[in-house]
Amino acid sequence: MEREKIVAIVNDFLVNEFEVDGDEISNDANLKNTLGLDSLDYIDMVVVIESNFGVKLGEADFKKMVTFDDFYSTIENKIAEKNA
Predict the structure, then answer these.
(1) How many CA atoms, within 13 angstroms, populate the side-chain half-sphere of residue 42?
(2) 40-57 residue pLDDT tens
(3) CA–CA separation, 57 vs 43, rounded Å?
(4) Alpha-carbon distance 33 to 15, whole Å?
(5) Long-range residue pairs from 13-16, CB within 8 A, at least 24 positions apart, any chain
């Protein structure tokens, strides 16, 4: 899957499902500060990612993510690993 499609899908569900202001989403924005999600929201996000991309993110994956670019890259890498 192309990165542009991953970004579009992720941004769409963040805006529509998690009510994130789309203007605050940028590659270098801090993921946790921008999203302001609680632990239950992260569980919901894991489910949404799995249903959209067929990959699962764990707690360790989220700990490594600082920016939205990290978030997109993690999903992209998980998809590549799954398809390898």
Answers:
(1) 15
(2) 888 999 999 999 999 999
(3) 10
(4) 15
(5) 13/48, 13/52
Residue 65 phi, psi (nearest 5)? -85, 125
**pLDDT tens-digit series, residues 4-53:** 999 999 999 999 999 999 999 999 999 989 998 888 888 999 999 999 99
What does the DSSP assignment read for 4-68? HHHHHHHHHHHHHHS---GGG--TTSBHHHHH---HHHHHHHHHHHHHHHS----HHHHHH--BH
Q: Which domains does the chain have, with CATH numbers?
A: 3-83 (1.10.1200.10)
Name which of 68, 46, 47 is nearest 58 in CA terms. 46
Q: Which DSSP category does 55 fall into?
A: -
